Amino acid sequence: MAAPKKGRRPAGGPGGQSRPGRALALILIAMVALTGGMFWSGHTTPRLGIDLAGGTSITLKAKAEPGQEDAVNETNMNTAVGIIERRVNGLGVSEAEVQTQGRENIIVNIPRGVNEKQAREQVGTTAQLYFRPVLTYAPSEQPAPSASSSTSPKPSASGSSADKGKDKPTATPSSSASTQGRAVSEALKAPTPTPTGSATPKGSDTPKPSGTPSADPAASALEQKFATLNCLDPKQRAAAGQGVKASDSTVACGKNAVGQWEKYLLGPAAVDGQDVDDAKGEFDQTRGMWIVNMEFTSAGAKKFSQITSQLSQQQAPQNQFAIVLDGEVVSAPSVRTTLSANAEISGSFNQQSAQDLGNILSYGALPLTFDTQSVDTVTAALGGEQLEAGLIAGAIGLALVVLYLVIYYRGLSLIALLSLGASALLTYVIMALLGPAIGFALNLPAVCGAIVAIGITADSFIVYFERIRDEVREGRTLRPAVERAWPRARRTILVSDFVSFLAAAVLFVVTVGKVQGFAFTLGLTTLLDVVVVFLFTKPLMTLLARTKFFGEGHAWSGLDPKRLGAKPPLRRSRRVTASAAGPVDSPKEA
To answer: Phi, psi (5° rounding) for residue 511?
Structure first.
């Protein structure tokens, strides 16, 4: 087997790249696949932020409950901002801006493309969730029921061993106000199932004969409130449970499975929303309906298991627990067996309402109540002008970079321009795909990050080109110069890009709002710079070095040895030295 000739490195030697076509084919296939995916998804342009596309601005004003005026403080406001931001992000909007204004206002800016009504419900809903035992209930347009009567269908609680799809006994309304009072008195004096450590309802320790008014003023007031509550009146519905502590009995309104309003008399809260670990809206294939599945924390599971164990031993309607969200009963399932760490809320949900409720429960309750002060439409006029100015500045900067490359690097500028084009295409396509995938929205700072990336990418090419020129100046021909220059240039490029990416990552973590858009774009383009240099620029340079134009150092190639001040070839200089040494040594040998 013949040994390789002296002065030549084997094709697959260190620092070499024997098959540059494979790397080029790989990145070209990736570019075609990503571009095809962009057109297939139907999202051919990046999603724009509120400053470029316009959107909705919602102003919320914090309102403290009676006797809790100190609740409107900086800590609670910052907590509310975090929860609202997570809720809006749950809608697939990562460009939303949520920030405080003054002492008691929160401003929420949401880009165009989000359902305004849905966004208003998400950001303004307090989401105070309680699981309360049902003492009694009645259709709102009729008097309250007595304790014993016939049946009507209601939903049932579901868990690991709950009965599903069954009807439960409920009360039939009576026809007189006196019966209404007796029913409430009997419900209040009956033992209320509550977990250990929970308060019992007021008036429950003093049983009285049926028909005798309660001696407890609080219980009497609750009887009167339940008797006169009209859930058909929106104002009465909203005021029904306001200012009530979790440890007190209360009244509330809710719709049944057929959409009719009912009023409920409820015991103290046994479980609250802080005991919910996760919740999501899902479609139940078996029953053909949308439900909200909940998972409790370990403490919440213990409370839930205890309360359902007690409720399962009660008669209807006191074997129900009401799921109360912001003072309204969203579901009141009956319990026939002890449930464990999981539960579901079923009722008249559609896909959006189930997913919205799951989103709200997952991210927790707001520490304050908020009133919507204003909802304004934000135009993109100002942002459009700034974008136009930014694009003009970017175009001027790019033109200057191209001019510099053409004048200084001549033929090598072709490689740089093709690499910049590949990087720009990948950046655009990935931004367009990230919009529907993770809710990424392109704002003005993100555009600035993309413009800055032009310099980062061009810097990588310049580092490699200068390394090649250094090798040519040392007297090497172009093909070995390309391969010898790559390991040194590669280290410099990786270190430079690592520093840029690290800065972008830190900036993304420690900042909020629009600045994160700049950091995200800068980090993305830095990663793409590494991909393009390794899989496109280097293989393309290797292939062009084999051509006559670049390989022989044409005057316009940018690699002309004469213009670079190259030394004589290393191989020839060694031969000259060897031949000169012979005559000098021969006399001594003689």
So the answer is: -115, 170
Alpha-helical (H) ranges within 312-368 are 351-363
**CA-atom Rg of the chain in angstroms:** 37
Q: Which of 418, 486, 448 is nearest to 31 (CA)?
A: 418
What distances in angstroms separate CA 282 from CA 285, 292, 312, 340, one per listed residue? 9, 6, 26, 19
Report the DSSP beta bridge partners of residue 58: 108, 375
At residue 406, the 3 state secondary structure works out as helix
Cβ neighbour number for residue 462 with a 10 Å cutoff: 17
Task: Please give the sequence-ordered ranges of beta strands (E in DSSP) within 95-148, or none if there are none.
Answer: 97-101, 105-111, 129-139
| Residue 170 falls in which region: left (phi positive, over 0), alpha (psi -120 to 50) or beta | beta
The β-bridge partners of 376 are 57
Judge whether 195 and 303 are in contact, CB under 8 Å.
yes
Q: What is the mean pLDDT of residues 445-455?
A: 84
Percent of the chain with pLDDT over 90: 13
Residue that the structure tokens 């030697």 belong to? 13
The residue type at 294: M
Which residue reads 């809260």 in tokens?
269
pTM over 0.85: no
User: Would you put residue 192 in left (φ > 0), alpha (ψ -120 to 50) or beta?
Assistant: beta
Q: Which residue has the tokens 């007690």?
A: 310
pLDDT digits (tens, 9 = 90+) for 146-192: 433 333 334 444 443 333 333 333 333 333 444 444 555 555 555 55
CA nearest neighbour of 63 among 366, 375, 361:
366
CA–CA separation, 339 vs 303, rounded Å? 10
- Helix and strand numbers (H, E) in the chain are 18, 13
pLDDT at 498: 94
